[in-house]
Amino acid sequence: MEDRTAKDRIMEAARARKMIRPRDLASIPGVREHILRLVRSGELKKISRGLYAPANSQIEGDQDLLEVAKLVPQGVICLLTALRIHEITTQNPFEIWIAIEGTATKPVTPGVPLNVSRFSGRSFSEGIKEIEFGHVTVRVYNPAKTVADCFKFRNKIGLDVALEALRDGWQQRKFTMDELWYYARVCRMTNVMRPYMESLV
User: Which whole-number Å values give the CA distances from 84 to 12, 141, 151, 159, 165, in the listed order?
Assistant: First the structure.
Protein backbone atom coordinates (compact mmCIF):
# COMPACT_ATOMS: atom_id res chain seq x y z
CA MET A 1 0.00 0.00 0.00
CA GLU A 2 2.85 2.41 0.81
CA ASP A 3 4.50 1.74 -2.54
CA ARG A 4 1.28 2.38 -4.40
CA THR A 5 0.61 5.59 -2.47
CA ALA A 6 4.15 6.86 -3.07
CA LYS A 7 3.87 6.00 -6.76
CA ASP A 8 0.55 7.82 -7.05
CA ARG A 9 1.95 10.92 -5.34
CA ILE A 10 5.03 10.95 -7.59
CA MET A 11 3.03 10.49 -10.80
CA GLU A 12 0.49 13.11 -9.75
CA ALA A 13 3.31 15.61 -9.14
CA ALA A 14 5.00 14.69 -12.44
CA ARG A 15 1.81 15.24 -14.42
CA ALA A 16 1.05 18.53 -12.66
CA ARG A 17 4.55 20.01 -12.84
CA LYS A 18 5.56 18.52 -16.21
CA MET A 19 9.01 17.71 -14.76
CA ILE A 20 10.16 16.69 -11.29
CA ARG A 21 13.37 16.30 -9.33
CA PRO A 22 13.68 13.87 -6.41
CA ARG A 23 14.45 16.74 -4.06
CA ASP A 24 11.11 18.34 -5.00
CA LEU A 25 9.42 15.33 -3.39
CA ALA A 26 11.73 14.80 -0.43
CA SER A 27 8.72 14.33 1.88
CA ILE A 28 8.04 10.96 0.23
CA PRO A 29 10.13 8.26 1.95
CA GLY A 30 12.47 6.51 -0.48
CA VAL A 31 11.48 8.84 -3.32
CA ARG A 32 14.63 8.14 -5.37
CA GLU A 33 14.02 4.40 -5.33
CA HIS A 34 10.37 4.87 -6.28
CA ILE A 35 11.34 7.12 -9.19
CA LEU A 36 13.87 4.56 -10.45
CA ARG A 37 11.15 1.88 -10.36
CA LEU A 38 8.82 4.16 -12.33
CA VAL A 39 11.55 4.72 -14.94
CA ARG A 40 12.13 0.97 -15.22
CA SER A 41 8.40 0.35 -15.60
CA GLY A 42 8.18 2.96 -18.35
CA GLU A 43 5.89 5.37 -16.50
CA LEU A 44 8.54 8.08 -16.09
CA LYS A 45 11.36 9.03 -18.43
CA LYS A 46 14.71 10.47 -17.44
CA ILE A 47 15.26 13.77 -19.21
CA SER A 48 18.66 14.55 -17.75
CA ARG A 49 20.55 13.99 -14.53
CA GLY A 50 18.10 14.35 -11.65
CA LEU A 51 15.18 15.40 -13.86
CA TYR A 52 12.19 13.23 -14.82
CA ALA A 53 8.91 13.61 -16.72
CA PRO A 54 5.88 11.43 -17.46
CA ALA A 55 6.76 8.99 -20.23
CA ASN A 56 3.95 10.21 -22.49
CA SER A 57 4.55 13.93 -21.90
CA GLN A 58 5.00 16.28 -24.82
CA ILE A 59 7.07 19.23 -23.65
CA GLU A 60 7.55 20.32 -27.28
CA GLY A 61 10.12 22.92 -28.25
CA ASP A 62 10.55 24.36 -24.79
CA GLN A 63 11.94 21.20 -23.20
CA ASP A 64 15.50 22.55 -23.06
CA LEU A 65 14.27 25.81 -21.54
CA LEU A 66 12.27 23.99 -18.87
CA GLU A 67 15.19 21.70 -18.07
CA VAL A 68 17.49 24.69 -17.55
CA ALA A 69 14.89 26.45 -15.39
CA LYS A 70 14.72 23.37 -13.18
CA LEU A 71 18.44 22.64 -13.07
CA VAL A 72 19.66 26.25 -12.69
CA PRO A 73 16.96 27.86 -10.52
CA GLN A 74 19.15 30.83 -9.53
CA GLY A 75 19.96 31.70 -13.15
CA VAL A 76 17.95 34.11 -15.30
CA ILE A 77 17.10 33.56 -18.97
CA CYS A 78 18.62 36.43 -20.92
CA LEU A 79 19.65 37.89 -24.29
CA LEU A 80 18.67 35.80 -27.34
CA THR A 81 16.52 33.29 -25.45
CA ALA A 82 14.73 36.08 -23.58
CA LEU A 83 14.10 37.85 -26.90
CA ARG A 84 12.53 34.67 -28.26
CA ILE A 85 10.31 34.29 -25.18
CA HIS A 86 9.13 37.91 -25.55
CA GLU A 87 8.73 37.47 -29.35
CA ILE A 88 10.81 40.50 -30.27
CA THR A 89 13.38 38.86 -32.52
CA THR A 90 13.74 36.76 -35.62
CA GLN A 91 16.59 34.90 -33.91
CA ASN A 92 16.05 31.25 -32.97
CA PRO A 93 19.10 30.28 -30.90
CA PHE A 94 19.92 26.60 -30.50
CA GLU A 95 21.50 27.37 -27.09
CA ILE A 96 19.72 28.52 -23.97
CA TRP A 97 21.16 31.90 -22.99
CA ILE A 98 21.33 32.32 -19.23
CA ALA A 99 22.76 34.88 -16.82
CA ILE A 100 24.44 33.89 -13.58
CA GLU A 101 25.59 36.20 -10.83
CA GLY A 102 29.18 37.33 -10.53
CA THR A 103 31.42 34.49 -9.41
CA ALA A 104 28.70 31.82 -9.23
CA THR A 105 29.80 28.38 -10.39
CA LYS A 106 29.15 27.86 -14.08
CA PRO A 107 26.19 25.48 -14.37
CA VAL A 108 26.41 22.08 -16.03
CA THR A 109 23.33 20.83 -17.88
CA PRO A 110 24.15 17.56 -19.65
CA GLY A 111 22.51 17.39 -23.05
CA VAL A 112 21.36 21.01 -23.07
CA PRO A 113 23.66 23.56 -24.75
CA LEU A 114 24.08 26.70 -22.65
CA ASN A 115 25.49 30.13 -23.41
CA VAL A 116 26.37 31.59 -20.00
CA SER A 117 26.87 35.30 -19.30
CA ARG A 118 27.97 36.74 -15.97
CA PHE A 119 26.02 39.71 -14.67
CA SER A 120 26.70 41.59 -11.43
CA GLY A 121 24.93 43.91 -9.02
CA ARG A 122 21.75 45.58 -10.27
CA SER A 123 22.50 44.38 -13.76
CA PHE A 124 21.80 40.85 -12.49
CA SER A 125 19.05 41.48 -9.93
CA GLU A 126 16.83 44.03 -11.67
CA GLY A 127 14.14 43.36 -14.25
CA ILE A 128 13.50 39.70 -13.44
CA LYS A 129 10.02 38.38 -14.08
CA GLU A 130 8.70 34.88 -13.52
CA ILE A 131 6.75 33.11 -16.25
CA GLU A 132 4.84 29.88 -15.74
CA PHE A 133 5.30 27.23 -18.43
CA GLY A 134 2.90 24.55 -17.28
CA HIS A 135 3.95 24.23 -13.64
CA VAL A 136 7.58 25.16 -14.26
CA THR A 137 8.62 28.67 -13.22
CA VAL A 138 11.07 30.31 -15.63
CA ARG A 139 13.00 33.39 -14.48
CA VAL A 140 13.58 35.73 -17.40
CA TYR A 141 14.48 39.38 -17.82
CA ASN A 142 11.58 41.57 -18.89
CA PRO A 143 11.53 43.02 -22.44
CA ALA A 144 12.99 46.44 -21.57
CA LYS A 145 15.83 44.94 -19.50
CA THR A 146 16.53 42.39 -22.24
CA VAL A 147 16.88 45.12 -24.88
CA ALA A 148 19.27 47.07 -22.64
CA ASP A 149 21.27 43.86 -22.09
CA CYS A 150 21.45 43.35 -25.85
CA PHE A 151 23.12 46.72 -26.25
CA LYS A 152 25.47 45.96 -23.37
CA PHE A 153 26.45 42.66 -25.02
CA ARG A 154 26.27 43.97 -28.59
CA ASN A 155 29.81 42.80 -29.30
CA LYS A 156 28.70 39.28 -28.39
CA ILE A 157 25.33 39.11 -30.15
CA GLY A 158 25.64 41.84 -32.79
CA LEU A 159 24.36 45.42 -32.88
CA ASP A 160 21.85 44.44 -35.56
CA VAL A 161 20.15 42.05 -33.12
CA ALA A 162 19.93 44.76 -30.46
CA LEU A 163 18.47 47.26 -32.94
CA GLU A 164 15.92 44.74 -34.21
CA ALA A 165 14.82 44.01 -30.62
CA LEU A 166 14.55 47.73 -29.87
CA ARG A 167 12.41 48.42 -32.95
CA ASP A 168 10.21 45.34 -32.61
CA GLY A 169 9.71 45.78 -28.88
CA TRP A 170 8.71 49.40 -29.32
CA GLN A 171 6.34 48.66 -32.21
CA GLN A 172 4.69 45.86 -30.21
CA ARG A 173 4.45 48.09 -27.13
CA LYS A 174 6.42 45.64 -25.02
CA PHE A 175 7.83 48.56 -23.00
CA THR A 176 7.61 52.31 -22.53
CA MET A 177 10.42 54.77 -23.09
CA ASP A 178 10.60 55.36 -19.35
CA GLU A 179 11.07 51.62 -18.71
CA LEU A 180 13.70 51.38 -21.43
CA TRP A 181 15.58 54.41 -20.13
CA TYR A 182 15.51 53.02 -16.59
CA TYR A 183 17.18 49.77 -17.66
CA ALA A 184 19.59 51.63 -19.94
CA ARG A 185 20.77 53.38 -16.76
CA VAL A 186 20.93 50.09 -14.82
CA CYS A 187 23.13 48.63 -17.59
CA ARG A 188 25.10 51.88 -18.03
CA MET A 189 24.09 52.03 -21.67
CA THR A 190 22.44 55.47 -21.79
CA ASN A 191 25.06 57.07 -24.07
CA VAL A 192 24.96 54.11 -26.45
CA MET A 193 21.20 53.73 -26.57
CA ARG A 194 20.13 57.40 -26.53
CA PRO A 195 20.41 58.10 -30.30
CA TYR A 196 18.61 54.88 -31.21
CA MET A 197 15.84 55.57 -28.70
CA GLU A 198 15.44 59.15 -29.95
CA SER A 199 15.02 57.84 -33.50
CA LEU A 200 11.88 55.95 -32.41
CA VAL A 201 9.93 58.96 -31.11
Answer: 31, 12, 16, 17, 10
